[in-house]
Design brief:
With about 425 residues, the chain is α+β, with helices and mostly antiparallel strands. The chain has 15 helices and 11 strands. The strands form 3 sheets. Strands 4, 5, 6, 7, 8 and 11 form a 6-stranded antiparallel β-sheet that branches. It has a 3-stranded parallel β-sheet with strand order 1-2-3, sandwiched between helices. The relative contact order is 0.13.
Length: about 425
Amino acid sequence: VDVIGLSGLITPSLDEMVHVAKEMERRGMSLPLLIGGATTSRVHTAVKIAPNYSGPVFHVLDASRSVPVVSNLLNENESERIKFIDSYKKEYVNLREDYAKRKLEKNNISLEQARENRLKIDWTKSQVKKPSKLGVTVLNNYSLSKLRNYIDWTPFFMTWELKGKYPVIFEDKNVGAEAKKLFNDANKLLDKIVNERLLTANGVVGLFPANSVGVDDIEIYTDESRNGVKRVLHTIRQQMQKSKGEPNIALADFIAPKESGVEDYIGMFAVTTGLGIEKLLEKFEKEHDDYNSIMIKALADRLAEAFAEHLHELVRKEYWRYASGEKFANEDLIKEKYIGIRPAPGYPAQPDHTEKPIIFSLLDAKKNTGIKLTESMAMYPAASVSGLYFSHPKSKYFTVGKIGKDQVLDYHRRKGMSVEEVEKWLSPILNY
């Protein structure tokens, strides 16, 4: 082996990379280490990974960019090679210094102050709609031809590193022709997937009575009497200093507090369109057909997002019926012009992946859809989406940002999880 490359898809991968760097150091290795993948960044590589390994460490944005890096690392001209490695080392030292400076300048407030400045909704004036279909609804073997109409094609082109919005990307003088060819090939394969039912779409949605408790948690009740608590969801609050009039939000703010006496509700879902993909990938790999192998993964991902979009619409109009009269074109759905949000654990509004098992247990998602959670909380098959539903008109997406030790300690008490465990899962958002 000349070079080692690590690719990280979800937050827990970041810790694993730090562990690999430490192990390489412990074993006295000196091979170059390449870091890439969706959750990584130059700053994270410089601040968290590089200090653990005395060998060369490089962040590369994607597989194609690793080619020039590797060719520089394998350069037979030693002085050129050393010059290349040193330039990265210097850059990472600067990044670490900048990061340390910014950390000192960042104004984080205490958890107590953040809670005091929470989003205060007037629940006496809020019209809370009781779902027309409470409990769990299973939607298996869902129509792929229906989901096809909900596909957002812009991220599909990003998979192939073609920048531009669909459909105007076709007019682009640099990438238009290539984008059109990809689009046609994708639709040909999509026809085959739909007609021969090569992939299976399974989904589950749950709508439950709920109220927020203790400011940042959400109780989910066993039934409408609200006497028994089924499970508790835990949310994380923004702790950055806000300008006047701007609240420090947590997802729990969008659910009526228990003491308000308002009977509120919460929803959750899990969908997959990745069942059956293994067989197809095996076939393409046997035929050394990398193009269609990447294509099928990209299409399965797009269909899963389309399913999530379509299911959210069904919830708003039929199952919960809090926006039964809405009429939006697909473009408006992509722009999220509707009321309500569907945040997912592991994303900016709820950066904790360990909330997923709570959602999965309430939905009995493994049994109902075939989606499994791996030990690092990734969903399998990969073409799967899960999350929560909030219906209040004031609910919106936001980024939690960095949090302090006081919130970590509070979270550990609320979740009954060790501090080390909380810090491990929330490491990318800790401000210490």
